[in-house]
Amino acid sequence: TSSPTTPTSVSVIGLGAMGSALASTFVDAGFDTTVWNRTAGRADGLVARGARGAGDLAEAFTASDVVVLCVVNHEAARAVLAAAPPSDGRVVVNLTNGTPQEAESFAAAARDRGHAVLDGGIMAVPELIGGPHAFVLYSGPREAYDAAREVLTVLGRPVYVSDDDGAASLYDLSLLAGMYGMLGGFFHAAALVRSAGHGVESFTDELLVPWLSAMLGTLPESARSIDRGDYAETGSPLAMQVANDSIGEASAAQGVSAELYAPLHALMQRRVDDGHGAEDMAGVVELLHSRGA
Ligand code: FVH
What we know:
Layout (H helix, E strand, L loop, with lengths): L8 E5 L3 H12 L3 E5 L7 H6 L2 E2 L3 H6 L3 E4 L4 H10 L7 E4 L5 H13 L3 E8 L11 E5 L2 H11 L4 E6 L4 H29 L4 H17 L2 H10 L9 H5 L3 H9 L7 H15 L17
The site of ligand FVH has 22 residues, from helix 1 and helix 4.
Organism: Mumia zhuanghuii
Protein name: NAD(P)-dependent oxidoreductase
């Protein structure tokens, strides 16, 4: 049930693949939804679905309690912000992907113009918005999050990270870094299997997915080691893992590039050379900081 302060209206600015998915989800959830896009015409399908097409950016910005911005990058987001009217505490939720520094800079500029601002990181592709697997990270003032939460919930599970403006972006990019690492490993494995003339699909279904699923279960213990800065307890010491570079040698022999794996192997070797060969591989994280964590 809605309280009198619950927002009932939302504007979506930027109707690319993601902005359109956000807007149609708001419409389907019954919110009074106003939409605007720089290039006219992209709102037509949403208007046919029940959204209100704003005549200009100012109309879109002032039409709703909550304004969701989802454009290609922060340069575009800053351009939209500069062209929009100031407000007296309207919640602007910037779901444009960028760095923590860009999120902080956008938030400061938005506050200068009187807006309450949240930064968000969408952990979903457009087709998943509004579904059970979508989640969205938010950071910024807690009051702004609480004010907009009921609207934002329909997009996917909302996760409030912290009041630090850059935190949602940092978590978003950290999750993507984890994903790209996994995909890099998959591509190397696929190239090795294919180099021997075997099918990648059955290898993946029957062996790689179960293997990676089992290895995922080891991450919480590694995370605890990283939080403690103590990598001593392990049944698979680093020195054993780099005693030979079978993956690199086999890749070369198969005509497969090891360029995705080689940087990690080099870090593992450096950690051993630094005297940590008896420790767990998670200690490699200590080599990734160029300044104090
Ligand atoms: N699509 C995805 O899978 C990912 C999932 C995770 C989050 N990302 C981020 O979402 C932002 C928008 O992505 P998108 O997929 O909607 O991108 P496009 O389909 O390329 O649409 C871009 C929209 O940005 C508008 N735009 C560009 N420049 C400006 C500007 N200077 N002023 C105002 N609007 C601008 C563009 O308008 P137009 O070209 O149609 O006039 C589109 O509406 C993005 O940060 C992803 O990283 C999506």
